[in-house]
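Re: that backbone. Tokens:
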């Protein structure tokens, strides 16, 4: 346990010194390897090769590419314009649109950061134009972005499934109901805030049923993509990896049909995908190497024994794990947190009788909380970057009511696991 504490302290020092997270993880793996009975350098090639051969992880760059094409072709922007007229009379108006559009976009991207960045770039110009409270408006975008890893297809679900050998189609099914509940909680939060403080709401945009119906066809592309990707999996026509490839093909066809595809769009999408995927793979490989080294020195067994010796009940154990994730989520990016902790904690939770699919959704939910809490709430940084002015503190303040809603959902799935396992 002392080794784990020493690693945690060293990691925080390196992180706050400005090192990228994959560098911190890699240095940690090498440091632990120095006291390992097996030379860590001998395991480096084996670990990297083993993870590069993981068929499931091939879907990760494909889903990233799908989202990049969807954004850069301009199809995502059309969704926002199509949803806005339908929510114009509900308190919160365009803030409700931020959440609803994030939910729809999440069904095509699989990434929280991509969702927050896309909706932020579209929605932020509307703040002054229609007189919204800037902090709450920005908070609704950052919160809506968290749905990107809960609504299938989710990159984090793929990574969790590959680590724990859990069925990815089951994880996708399990994420649907919690995702819709979280969307409803976010929209309810916005509604309550704007009813309590009407001056935070924006102006009513005049619209009619003719306009609403005219914009509906703009929602067809995400519906088509969701049907192709998720539908092909549950129809037994494709594996998650094959479904991701079908999704990319469908996105290319949609962009071509709408006249939005060009060499420049495709080139920029491929470049962005390669850049993002390179970082993700480095994080996954280094985290696997660190977990391998920790296993060699007996850390995983020691942690298992320590937690079991606490003699906690099931609810006490899950509350302890949630607390661990909430604290670590303040300092670690979501995917890094997943690949670092799941190999250690998943076996402990399975031994305690928790369903691996249920635990996967729980991990994703508490990881989402880390995306909107300081000091490393990545969604807030992305929204602030899209804003391009003012203080990051505005975003963190604005998103705080939505963080409460997210924690309410955590409580709901702990009290009623059937919300996650509804399909069984």
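Recovered sequence:
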């Amino acid at each position: 346990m002392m080794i784990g504490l020493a690693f945690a302290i060293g990691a925080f020092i390196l992180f706050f010194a400005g090192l990228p997270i994959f560098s911190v993880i890699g240095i940690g793996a090498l440091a632990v390897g120095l006291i390992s009975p097996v030379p860590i350098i001998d395991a480096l090639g084996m670990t990297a090769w083993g993870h590069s051969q993981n068929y499931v992880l091939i879907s990760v760059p494909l889903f990233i590419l799908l989202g990049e094409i969807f954004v850069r072709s301009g199809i995502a922007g059309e969704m926002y314009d199509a949803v806005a007229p339908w929510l114009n009379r509900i308190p919160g108006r365009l803030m409700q649109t931020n959440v609803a559009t994030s939910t729809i976009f999440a069904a095509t991207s699989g990434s929280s950061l991509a969702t927050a960045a896309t909706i932020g770039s579209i929605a932020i110009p509307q703040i002054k134009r229609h007189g919204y409270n800037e902090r709450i408006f920005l908070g609704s975008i950052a919160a809506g972005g968290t749905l990107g890893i809960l609504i299938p297809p989710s990159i984090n679900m793929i990574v969790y499934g590959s680590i724990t050998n859990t069925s990815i189609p089951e994880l996708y099914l399990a994420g649907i109901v919690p995702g819709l509940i979280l969307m409803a909680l976010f929209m309810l939060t916005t509604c309550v805030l704007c009813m309590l403080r009407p001056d935070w709401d924006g102006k009513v945009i005049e619209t009619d049923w003719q306009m609403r119906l005219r914009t509906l066809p703009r929602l067809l592309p995400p519906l088509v993509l969701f049907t192709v990707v998720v539908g092909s999996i549950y129809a037994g026509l494709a594996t998650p990896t094959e479904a991701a490839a079908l999704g990319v093909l469908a996105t290319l066809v949609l962009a071509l049909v709408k006249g939005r595809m060009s060499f420049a769009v495709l080139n920029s999408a491929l470049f962005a995908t390669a850049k993002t995927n390179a970082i993700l793979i480095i994080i996954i490989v280094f985290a696997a190497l660190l977990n391998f080294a920790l296993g060699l020195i007996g850390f995983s067994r020691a942690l298992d024994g320590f937690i079991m010796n606490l003699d906690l009940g099931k609810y006490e154990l899950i509350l302890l794990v949630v607390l661990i994730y909430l604290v670590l989520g303040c300092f670690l990016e979501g995917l890094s947190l997943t690949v670092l902790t799941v190999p250690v904690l998943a076996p402990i939770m399975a031994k305690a009788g928790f369903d691996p699919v249920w635990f996967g959704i729980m991990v994703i939910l508490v990881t989402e909380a880390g995306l909107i809490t300081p000091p490393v709430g990545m969604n807030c940084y992305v929204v602030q970057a899209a804003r391009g002015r003012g203080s990051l503190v505005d975003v963190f303040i604005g998103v705080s009511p939505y963080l409460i809603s997210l924690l309410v959902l955590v409580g709901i799935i702990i009290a009623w696991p059937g919300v996650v396992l509804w399909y069984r």
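The chain has a mean pLDDT of 84. The CA atoms of residues 20 and 183 lie 32 Å apart.
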